[in-house]
Amino acid sequence: MSALLSGTNVVRNYGATPALRGVDLAVDEGEIVAVTGPSGCGKSTLLHCLAGILRPDAGTVTYRDQNIGLWSEAARSRLRRTDFGVLFQFGQLVPELTAVENVALPLLLAGSGRREARSVAAEWLDRLGVAELAEQRPGAMSGGQQQRCATARALVTQPRVLFADEPTGALDVLTGEQVLGEIVRVARELGTAVVLVTHAASVAAYADREIVLRDGVLDPTGLGLGVAR
Fold first, then answer.
1. Which PROSITE patterns match (predicted)?
2. pTM of this prediction?
3. CA 29/CA 114 separation, integer angstroms
4. Are 29 and 191 a contacting pair, CB within 8 Å?
5. Strand 66-67 and strand 58-63: pairing?
């Protein structure tokens, strides 16, 4: 049985500077994989390629046996509104919108009616323990509250894959562990696969498997060598 998501010999350059130099990674249904390594090693670039935000310069990214690198930008954007959820380090909530409006946004973009989208969004805020913030704007929230709301937004479409890029990097240790625990709990409930980028060993410990990047390649001395599953 083939992996749900895989990258094969993924290469990505920024001008003359190589970010990824032939990386292989395969993720199964419901699996949580941590991508670790020092700053600047290509972790976020790999996540962006796997999520279809960036196209690799060489190699392939395959989701459900389809090479999404051949898809148009519009098609890849639709994928991120349906099958993929993306969670960034600083949440990136829309400051002018309330929490419930932020969480409802992916549903509205996918064509849901406003009332239905708000109702489902409110349920997800409750699921992440921040129902009381529904009518608050991000500026009135703590960092941990913002990240819980951002997590609800990333999961509101019940994606097959959640991409989390340093999701606790802007939080203190205790709040970060609480937020990460919520991410893992909900992902397990949904059977969602997670690609988790982090530089922290304590965060990577939540994953089923870890791969280590150094200078844009898999580190053979690290855990999770190659695409072993």
1. ABC_TRANSPORTER_2 (PS50893)
2. 0.90
3. 31
4. yes
5. antiparallel
Dist CA 53 CA 76 (whole Å): 8
CA distances from 194 to 117, 121, 180 (A): 24, 21, 12
Q: How is residue 116 written in tokens?
A: 């239905």
Q: Tell me which amino acid residue 155 is.
A: L
18 Cβ partners below 8 Å, 6+ apart? 11, 12, 216
Instruction: Supply the DSSP string of 93-151, one letter for each residue.
Output: --TTS-HHHHHHHHHHHTT--HHHHHHHHHHHHHHTT-GGGTT--GGGS-HHHHHHHHH
Task: Count how many residues are written for the chain.
Answer: 229
Rounded Cα gap, residues 184 and 155, in angstroms: 11
Q: Any idea what DSSP says for residue 55?
A: -
Q: Determine the Cα angle at 57 with ends 54 and 63, to 5°.
A: 55
| Residue with token string 């969480």 | 103
pLDDT tens-digit map of 64-79: 999 999 999 999 998 9
- Condensed to tens digits (0 to 9), the pLDDT of residues 80-127 reads 888 999 998 877 899 999 999 999 999 998 889 999 999 999 999 998
Please spell the DSSP secondary structure of 167-217, one letter per residue. TTTTS-HHHHHHHHHHHHHHHHHHT-EEEEE-S-HHHHTTSSEEEEEETTE
Mark out the alpha helices in 19-98 (DSSP H runs): 43-50, 73-82
Task: Write the burial class of residue 51 (CB in 10 Å: 0-12 exposed, 13-18 middle, 19+ buried).
Answer: buried
80 burial (CB, 10 Å; 0-12 / 13-18 / 19+) is: buried
pLDDT of 26-63, one tens digit each? 999 999 999 999 888 999 999 999 999 999 999 999 99
